[in-house]
Each structure stands twice: as C-alpha cells, then as structure tokens.
Design a protein that fits this description.
With 712 residues, the protein is of the alpha+beta class. The strands form eleven sheets. Strands 1-33-34-35-36 form a five-stranded mixed sheet, with no helix packed on it. The chain has a four-stranded antiparallel sheet with strand order 2-39-38-37, with no helix packed on it. The protein is globular and about 70 Å long.
C-alpha cells in the first residue's frame, strides 16, 4: 500500500511526462563522465573515477558549505553505501540490504524496499549487516542482498520486479558489494571465504533475472570434473585437498567495466583458509586468488589475468577499488588500470593486456622487498609466510587500503586514497581444524590483525590513517592529510579542485586537491566509512554522505570512539546550507556486576582466548566495541544474567545475534562472561576516574593482560 502511495506522490510531485520517461540508458552511462548533474553508477562513471565535473563548490568557496538537510535512519549498524542520484532522487542502501529512495533536495523519504533478510543467518555475514549500494539500468534498481539474492526493484515505485538466488544457501555466502551493469548484464559476486566457500562472479540478464554465466575464481574438486579448461589449468597451481576448505577467492567488492574494450575487470579475494600452507601444502600460486581477471561481460569469457599476490597468505585481497584511465607512461599513452590493494603496493596495469607496468609501495611494507618487473612477481622477505615463527606483518591483513573507494582527478592527475599504516603479528596455528559456521583462518586469532590489540597497538602509537594524494606517473606521494585512526571513509574529487572525505573522527572534510590543505569540516556526530557523492538539483550543487560507523575493521578492531550519537544519518551539504543537527544525548550505563568469586584467573584468560576466537570479529578486540553492536562491557545488568541464554540459547538470534552452542559449552560461556566482566570493571573504573587511564599502572595492566591472551 505504502509503495503504491509513494508512486502517487511521485506522479503528483513530478510532471507525468518525467515519470513516464524515467530511464537510464546505455548512452547516459557512457556520457556519465562529462555529465555531473546525476550520479548514475557506483563509481560515478564506467571508469570508476569518482570524479565529478561540477565546480560550483570550489576550493575558493568550500568554507561556506553548510548542512542543507539531514535524514535520520532506523539503522544502528555501519553505513557503507555510495548513493545514486537521478532526476532529483537519491537511492541508497542501509542495514540488512534495505533500499531507500528520498528527495535529493530535502531528504524526504519517497519509498523503501525491505528484502526481508532472515536475521538468523547473521553468523554467515563476515563483516556486519552492511551494503555498499545499488546499480541503475533502464527503469530498475539492482541490489545484492545479505542472504545472497540479486533483486530488481522498480525505480519509481520501489516494487520488487524479480528476485534471483545467486548462492547455495546451505553454504555461508553473503553479498555486501554493489552490483554493476554492463550493457544489459548485471554482475554480482559475494563474500564468505572465511567460512570455507569457493569464489565466483556471475552475470544476469537485467530484464529477466536469468543467470547468463558464472566465472569460478578457484578450481573445485577434481573428482567432480572441472567446469572448463581454465579451471583445469588453475588446478595445476594448487596442491593437497584445497576444495575441502573451500579455497576462497570470493569477489566481494570491486568491479570495473571498459565499454570501449568490452572488458569487465574482476577483483578477486583472499584464500580460504588464509594460511597457504594449510590450504595448499605442496605450494603453488593458487590461481586466481588475489588477482585481477578480465572477462567479457556478456559471456564471462576469460581474456587475461594478473595475480598481485601469488600464493597469498595474509588476507591480501585484490578486491579493492579499481580505476580506469589513460596516462602518458614512459613515452606513450597507455590504457591503464590503477589499484591500491591491501598488500601495500600501488599497481599500474595495461588494461588491454594485463601487463604489469609498475608496482611501488604506497604505505610501509615488509612482506616483500619489491616486484621483479621481469617476472611480475613480488620478492618475499624471509619468514614473511610465518610458517616457522611469528612475523610482525606490515601492512596487516586489514590492508594498506581496504574497501573504502579512492578517487582520481584528471585535473591534477592524482589518485586520492584512504590509506592506513598498521602492523600486526601473524602466527601459524599449531593444529588446523575446520569449524562450520565460523571463521577458519589458519592462524591464531588472538594474535592476528582481527584479534590483535596489545592495548590497541600500545595506545595507537603504531597505527595511523591518512588521506593520501598519490601521483601514479611518478609513483610517489604528493601530500597526506592525517586522520585520527583507521577505517576512514571513501573519497570524492571534483572539478572545483576539492577532495571530500569523512573519517572515524566524526568529521566530514574538504581538502584542496593540489595542496592537501583542509578547507572546511563539519562535526557529523558519528564516524564515517562511506564515500560521498555530488549532484545538482535545479542547478544547485549538493554533496551527500551516509554517516555511521560499523562493519569490517571497525567492528573487529574495536576502535575507540569520540562522544557520538547512536543515530545513523544521511547528511547533505550545499553552499550556505542552514540546517543543524540536534545535540548529542550523553550515553550512560550501569555499573557492571563483579566477576564471580569462584572463577579463577586462569579461567578468565581462557575466556579471553575464546572471546578473541569467536566474539571479537563483531564485538571488538579486548571487548571494546566499534559502536555498531552492543559493547559487552556496558550492558544493562539483566543481560549478564541472561548471558548464556543469548550466547548459547539463541535468545536474540531473530535480531541478528547468532547462537554459539555448537562451539561453546556452558563452562566456556561462563569463562567468556567472566572475561567480559573483568574488562567491564576496568572500563567502569577508567570512566569514573579518567585520569587513572594515564597512570603507568593502567598501562602495565593492559599490556600484561593482552600479552597473556597472545601467549595462550
């Protein structure tokens, strides 16, 4: 009823001819690079530059930006989507793959589509209940749902047109990435390698939802026969019984399309398990892990590949944002693909052939000394594979750059990149045991990038996040703008020589594209992970960003937060905008109960180890929440009473909190609760007397507690 009402409202608000003519054509997508009024694709144009030719907001007047409007959402988890803008309407996705349409000039909601995700499946969702956006084609929007469906929705009414399953729902796949449309074919991948899945990417007919092709990224069980000769070839680069562990290689984010070459570029993910010695003990490069693969979008036919990290063992995905451009390289114009993946090297590939042109570190790197340009392969440093002894890996598996999109300005010739410098220890687990429904990494979680804290890297002194301006011609840094911590938002560049980025420090900022000087910032009251867009309505330029921490590294690292609202929002800015945000309501919590007297120190440390193994990926290392899921140290007292009912009994399963009775006994749950209560007591003491945090005693206690966890 409400969706039909929304259509009536749209007809009333817009001339009938405009409504009837609503369509996104192939020609409009081809022209998107020069037409800045709308934002029709995930990366704004086919080249995924995230560069807008709009210049009404410039480095000369950016300081006059103000909030035009804000929209509060029902969401309480991370917001990672890049909105789309078409004819004065914004389309974006929120938590649980819900799709929204709002008036781009004032934020009034027009309709929403809820795909009704089964929240009991949340154990299969690697990195939160996030979604990175939709795709437009003709009169439809396309989204991938967390539970693995590809859905087409009418762009005017929000009515579902068709729904196609893309996964085997008996396995632990999920979708968080945005689809792409290439000449009438909707392309979508998925995630789930940590749960033991086998990666692939698929193409679907945009009108009917029929699957047209599927490209597997790793080979399956040889006894079942290979899907094609390519998989038979890839299998020669594997050893052991990799298929029993899935293999990995999921295509969970970046895709790019070159319509002139008719090539779709697919970024392939990490291995499963991450530790190569366990999934492929006899060696081998393990194709097509951590590769960029070029295929034909109509058929999925393989054209070429380049493997960035052969035999990857560090969660070094190649799923990070790809940008297509033409540059003058060593005396001639080359059609290139630019990527700054997790492994810390900035790659330039010839996008016609896949030839490696350059690979230089854009952040500090210690797993490889350089790339051998005669072979195109990295030269690994001693013990980087952590098979014989632990290795302090830089960049960690969190990556020198994660999923947050970068941008490229043809005016400056620079790439603007959300970079981060973070080292973490890697240590091979003595015995590998595959556990269904849970992460299977092949190394010790407590000392991994996902469990490593050591007082959050000794109070953050070994971590840094920054916006990096990178010259791809010289492969050198031009400038950097520091951010408060890791996991900062994606980037937008404009013809006004302004670069926009939001951060986990609750700031949305504008920088001079040439110097890096900060021109303007706004207190968003919540951290930002998503990327902004810009568009016009009635000739006026707007800039929109989704605001809300959560998912991915924010959950896993448990980054500390500034005073923040729990509300997730859409914020839109324009020159001389006059809207304001309401003040933050201070959060309070009860004093936690004491640790039960009959629980020994050894049992508490066992609980710490179990927490890091099964709980930290959502609730944060050292029980410090990233802010989008409950902080277990600050629960109302009745939740500690019902701790076992929630953790093992599934009391909150229908709300998205999984049950863990398959891996935790009653005594295990008691040990985890005791560990959480110990951390809760310390947190309470710190907040009652904040000065205590700065005492040597507090530092020593935290470091000692973290070391105990690491040594278990």
């Amino acid at each position: 009823m409400f969706k039909n009402l929304a259509l009536i409202v749209l007809v009333f608000l817009f001339p009938f001819t405009t409504v009837a003519a609503f369509s996104v054509t192939e020609q409009q997508l081809l022209d998107a690079a020069s037409d800045g009024n709308d934002w029709l694709m995930h990366g704004r144009d086919y080249a995924e530059t995230r560069y807008s030719p709009l210049d009404q907001v410039s480095r000369e007047n950016a300081a006059a930006l103000g909030l035009a409007w804000h929209l509060d959402l029902d969401d309480r988890h991370g917001l990672q989507a890049t909105p789309l803008a078409k004819d004065g309407i914004l389309y974006f996705t929120g938590n649980w793959s819900v799709l929204y349409a709002v008036d781009a000039s004032n934020g009034r909601e027009l309709w929403r589509y809820d795909p009704q995700i089964d929240r009991r499946r949340s154990i299969s969702f690697c990195c939160g209940v996030v979604n990175r956006g939709a795709a437009l084609w003709a009169d439809k929007l396309y989204i991938g749902t967390l539970d693995g469906d590809l859905v087409a929705v009418n762009a005017l009414s929000g009515e579902e047109v068709w729904r196609s399953p893309t996964i085997d729902k008996a396995k632990h796949y999920s979708i968080t990435g945005a689809p792409r449309v290439a000449n009438g074919v909707v392309i979508i991948g998925n995630g789930g390698s940590e749960f033991g899945t086998r990666g692939y990417v698929s193409g679907y007919d945009a009108e009917s939802g029929e699957m047209l092709w599927r490209f597997w990224t790793v080979p399956g069980n040889p006894a079942d026969g290979f899907e094609n000769e390519l998989m038979a070839m890839a299998a020669k680069t594997w050893s052991g019984e990799w298929w029993t562990m899935g293999g990995g290689g999921t295509v969970w984010d970046s895709l790019a399309y070159d319509p002139e070459l008719d090539l779709l570029y697919v970024g392939v993910g990490n291995g499963a398990p991450h530790n190569r010695d366990m999934r492929s003990p006899g060696g081998g490069d393990n194709l097509f892990l951590s590769s960029i693969v070029a295929v034909r979008p109509k058929t999925g036919e393989y054209v070429w590949h380049y493997q960035e990290t052969p035999a990857e063992s560090w969660d070094y995905t190649a799923t990070q944002h790809m940008i297509l451009t033409d540059i003058f390289w060593q005396g001639e114009m080359r059609k290139v693909l630019l990527q700054a993946p997790k492994n810390g090297f900035f790659f330039i590939l010839d996008r016609e052939t896949g030839e490696l042109l350059s690979a230089e570190p854009y952040v500090p790197v210690n797993w490889a000394s350089h790339y051998d340009m005669s072979t195109g392969r990295p030269v690994e440093t001693p013990n980087a594979d952590y098979m014989d002894e632990p290795f302090m890996l830089r960049p960690s598996g969190i990556g020198g750059h994660n999923w947050q999109p970068m941008a490229y300005s043809p005016r400056t010739g620079l790439v603007y990149l959300p970079a981060q410098n973070f080292a973490a220890p890697m240590e091979k687990t003595p015995v590998y045991e595959f556990i269904d429904r849970h992460w299977n990494l092949g190394y010790e979680m407590a000392v991994s990038p996902f469990g490593y804290s050591l007082t959050q890297a000794i109070l953050r002194k070994s971590t840094e996040g920054y916006l990096l301006a990178w010259d791809p011609i010289t492969q050198r840094e031009v400038w950097r703008a520091p951010n408060r911590s890791l996991g900062n938002g994606g980037v937008l560049a404009t013809a006004g020589d302004v670069v926009f980025q939001g951060g986990t420090d609750n700031q949305f900022s504008a920088y001079d594209a040439r110097s890096g000087d900060k021109l303007w910032s706004f207190d968003t009251q919540q951290g930002i992970m998503a990327a902004p867009i810009t568009y016009t309505v009635d000739g006026e330029q707007y800039v929109t960003i989704l605001v809300g921490r959560g998912g991915g590294i924010i959950n896993m690292l448990g980054l500390d937060t500034l005073p923040s609202t729990s509300i997730r929002r859409v914020l839109t800015f324009k020159i001389d905008g006059a809207d304001t945000l309401p003040p933050i309501i201070e959060q309070t919590w009860e004093k936690p109960p004491p640790v039960p007297a009959d629980i020994s120190a050894e049992e508490i440390e066992r609980g710490a180890h179990l927490y890091q193994r099964f709980c930290a990926r959502c609730h944060g290392a050292s029980a410090v929440s990233g802010g989008s899921v409950p902080d277990l140290r600050r629960l109302d007292s009745h939740w500690y009473v019902q701790f076992d009912d929630v953790v093992r009994g599934g009391l909150m399963e229908s709300s998205g909190m999984p049950r863990f009775d398959d891996v935790l006994s009653e005594q295990d749950a008691l040990a985890v609760k005791a560990y959480v209560l110990r951390e809760a007591q310390q947190d309470w003491a710190v907040n009652q007397d904040p000065a205590w945090w700065h005492t040597p005693l507090r530092w020593l206690h935290q470091i000692f507690a973290s070391l105990l966890v690491m040594l278990m």
